[in-house]
Write a structure and sequence with these properties.
Elements: H1 3-14, H2 26-35, H3 41-54, H4 58-63, H5 66-73, H6 80-95, H7 104-107, H8 115-126, H9 135-145, H10 154-167, H11 173-186, H12 205-208, E1 225-235, E2 244-245, E3 256-257, E4 260-263, H13 269-279, E5 283-288, E6 294-297, E7 301-312, H14 322-325, H15 332-340
Parallel strand pairs: 1-7
Antiparallel strand pairs: 1-4, 2-3, 5-7, 6-7
Helix pairs in contact: 1-11, 2-3, 2-8, 8-11, 9-11
Cofactor: [4Fe-4S] cluster
Family: Belongs to the Nth/MutY family.
GO biological process, one term: base-excision repair
Amino acid sequence: MNFSNLLTTWYLQNKRDLPWRKTTNPYHIWLSEIMLQQTRVAQGLPYYLSFTKAFPTVFDLANAHEEEVLKLWQGLGYYSRARNLHNTAKYVASELNGIFPDNYKSLLSLKGVGEYTAAAIASFSYNEIAPVVDGNVYRVLSRYFGIETDISSPKAKKEFTALASELIDKQQPAAFNQAIMEFGALQCVPKNPNCDICPLNTSCWALANKKVALLPVKEKKTKVTHRYFNYLLVIDPQQKTIVHKRTQKGIWHNLYEFPVIETEKLESTKTISELIQVQFPETDKMIQLDSETVLHKLSHQHLHIHFWKIHTKINHKNGLSYNELVNLPVPIVIHNFIERNSF
């Protein structure tokens, strides 16, 4: 039995019961694939169910307010995905009459849809012979065939896609794509895979050469920058606070946050207090709410966060009550803070 047949047989016996596998509706397939970019299935599944309930069709999503979309997305991270999702929904609804493109090449024209996502939608919805190549696929192919190409190098995508194109089952492209991704997610996992029960263990190059832990090769290291945020929960005599929308490009675009003082390094309480006094001279009293730094890790940034509660003598213009605040889309680190600190 060849590689493709072994994978598909394994998949049919071991696949997870996931709602997007029970449909060929391109809207639902598209939603699931966008949500699962950089996201584990266990984390993405509740969001998928929430979105399909709130927005049963692409028209419903297109007609939603961006803040409603961002609020539902809250906690899933990589918020540009949500903004692209919303913009693409509006485009499909208004320009394509709600009908998604039915082939790989046309799907690539949609905002937020790259080669992997286009291949997934094309194969799962339309059974097009379009191989998917993601992290799971890199891992399975590099180990089984002994490919030591650095997967972060420019030539890797072309090399692995060419191999996947040769291997894909031309009669069942959707099943093959699902199988190889599921195999990487459940069996050929990044660390300590159980090779004893692997159906490919008699012909796996990495296992035979004791290189399972060394493949795939990825030499490029992600450079992480450190940023230091001091968020200010400023409470006025009416028990209202203020937030602003992050309109600048970068992290958390179009989400709301408290006034923030960003410093180049971790500063002393005295220094932060002085900076707060400059920004809010009418401060009545000030409390540092977290003695320990809240470390929030993003893919390329580590945010070192402190929260400060400030009471001011002057009422805020356009101040928000706690109940109004909790309805806004905010970064998950601020959401968690709000959950812990009502006012």
